[in-house]
Amino acid sequence: MKLRRCTTVMFEPREEVRLDFAAMLAGRTEPSTTITWVALAAHLEQPVPVTAAQRELLGGLGSRFWTDARDIGCPPGDWQPLLATGLLISDDDEHAAHRQRDEGMRDGHWWPLAALVHRHARWRGVNSAAQMRDSHMVTVNDLRRQLGAPPPAVQPHPGTYQPLPTVEATGYDQLLERRTTCRNFDAARSIDQAQLAQLLQRTVKAQAVVQMEADTTFLKKNVPSGGGLHPTETYLLVQRVEGLAPGLYHYHPVQHALVALPRHCERPLQDVAEAMLSGQDWFSNAAAHLVLVPRFARTNWKYRNHAKAYRALLLDVGHLSQALYMAATEAGLAAFVTAAINEIDTEAVFALDGVTQSPVAIVGVGWRSDTLDTAEFDPNKVVWP
Question: Which domain of life is it from (predicted)?
Fold first, then answer.
């Protein structure tokens, strides 16, 4: 068997502070500190505790060239656990899954720090809404009591500010003022298929296809994208759209068409949506949820191992979410966007591998309820007069 280190791994010392009860009984309050080293790898879901010997072993092995296991130079008790957890990669069939995931990250041309941030910031099974309620951090007053005052809303600089003219408002300004995040959807009302089609047409549909070579195509959309690459795919969880069966879909931006996807769970769609939305029940009954899923290789093809590539991907999703907000608002619909999602659970719903594709945000659209059951931020009282 031959071994190598995984492609991207970094080590973090984690410090745990404990009170020394023996010292307390002796009249001293001396905390004790325990430091544990963990390895964070780009192809793994969780940090892995490592010993000092294992840390040195991994630091001494390359990630591109194989070493015979007999030449490792340390006891099997040190390197075999690393093989089981995926920090060491082998050429045998038994550990092929770790090797394939590692190769997927390597071939995706990730900048190492961005790969680690992406992989280890993903959630599974988190109920952020319940955590907010349990910790009494739901309202602004709750946050102020728990966290103290926030930094100032504006940071002025020394000097005299020159006033700018206030230009007369137009219809676009009125549209911008109506753009607010909806937390109260009408769970009994469907949107038209034409409304959903218009929403997609204005935001994620390709307005032009530019064929540079037989295998090299660029799309023109109504939103900017880093490098003009438009790597973000749109998946949908449809609950109430006339003319569409409730279920899961993928949108084709060139054909301007939807294809139904197989269901990977038997739970009601609203439960699936709430799980994807990390328990944010005020969003889960939107008529349709649009899951924004970058294909990392599309961006990394141009920006290989680039420190700004992942930032450009996140900006792309931001551009899309605002465009969807505005298109929904113009159509009289309500909308939301959230990045507080359970990415790993969402990957399972849509059969995404989490390596080449992973969701970054979810946008929901539908009709706003007639009643304000959950507070919404509408200080100018445009939506809720």
Answer: Bacteria
